[in-house]
Amino acid sequence: IRRVTAIMHEPTGSSDNPIRFTTGLTVTVPVHATFENVQNADCIRLKVHYPDQKSYLITPKKCHFTKLNPLHYKLISEVIISHSLWSDQSHVEISIVMETKDGETVSCQELCKPVKVPVAPKVAKR
């Protein structure tokens, strides 16, 4: 039995300046993390939780992972954020989860605390 750990280096969640983008368009948030005691990086997912309470799991590409040693990985990727339903300044939470399958049941275990990224979508002018 091994304890899998993840450390998210970016985004840090400490910035007071929100990421600004036009509602309906996209913006990317860089993600940089390291993992310890991971046997297979194929089960790592990025979880994005939007202000409207919807959550999405994103599978990073295999080329975004760098194997540092047999059980240690580094991830450098991006999360694309887009939404058209809300236009108020709020937070998008980004976290790292491990997807596990037990027969037909699929579950996700959080590997680190969610990082709150402030976003400020602005209404598109027509």
Automatic annotation (TrEMBL):
Nucleus recorded as keyword: yes
Keywords linked to the UniProt accession: Nucleus
Residue intervals of the Integrator complex subunit 4/Protein SIEL C-terminal Ig-like domain: 8-122
Gene Ontology CC annotations of this record: integrator complex
Protein name, per record: Integrator complex subunit 4-like protein
PANTHER family for this protein: INTEGRATOR COMPLEX SUBUNIT 4
Keyword DNA repair applies: no
Entries under Pfam families matching the protein: INTS4_C
Gene Ontology terms: biological process: snRNA processing
